[in-house]
Structure formats: structure tokens, C-alpha cells
Amino acid sequence: MPKLLVVVDDTQNVIALYVDGMQVDSAAWPDSLSVINDVNNWLGRSQYSTDPDLAGVLHEFRIYAAALTMAQLQTSFAAGPDPPFLQP
């Protein structure tokens, strides 16, 4: 099962998609995450009742205060779920 990562870099105005630790695509991100109206905060569920729920498993979900670099993403990917460097 592939592992997906999305990085939104407001500083560089880029959004990037990673699959299994490797970048597969990116696009300009002219806005800021702060402009998103985040009233529907669901994972695996659409805001539209006619859409089906996610037919999958979410093993991890992380939000960082800054965009991770490629090296940081690869380190996190290689360490697997809940690596020691993320423990308090």
C-alpha cells in the first residue's frame, strides 16, 4: 500500500505530493493555508453526504508547523510510524 505525503510550503508557494518518500508532483500554491475555511475537519469523509467514506486505512496523520524538507521527509519515511525522534 503506497504511503502518501502532501507538503504545503507557504514560504515557497508550492504544494508537493510524495509517494513512498519520493516527490511525484508539485504545483504553485499562491494562497496560504490560513485562508482555508476549515469548518469541515474530517479525514476519510467528504463534506457532501452523497460521497462514500474512505474505503481505506489511515495509519498516521501529522501536521507540522513548517514544511519539511525532502531530507526530513525521507528520514521520517524510513523511520516508519511513530519514530523515536518524534517522541516527547
Salient structural properties:
three-stranded antiparallel sheet; 88 residues; alpha+beta
Q: What is the count of DSSP helices, taking H or I runs of 4+ residues?
A: 1
Strand-residue proportion: 15-25%
First and last CA, distance: 29 Å
Per the principal axes of the C-alpha atoms, what is the gross shape? globular
Q: Give the strand tally.
A: 3
Residue runs with pLDDT of under 50 for 5 or more positions: none
Give me the side-by-side strand order of the main sheet: 1-2-3
Q: What's the multimeric state?
A: single chain
Radius of gyration: 15 Å
SSE order, one letter for each helix or strand: EEEH
Number of domains: 1
Instruction: Please outline the major beta sheet.
Output: 3 strands, antiparallel
Mean pLDDT: 85
Percent helix: 10-25%
Word description of this protein:
By secondary structure, the protein is an alpha+beta fold. The chain has one domain. It is built from 1 helix and 3 strands. The chain has a 3-stranded antiparallel sheet with strand order 1-2-3, with no helix packed on it. The radius of gyration is 15 Å and the shape is globular. 2% of the residues are buried. The mean pLDDT is 85.
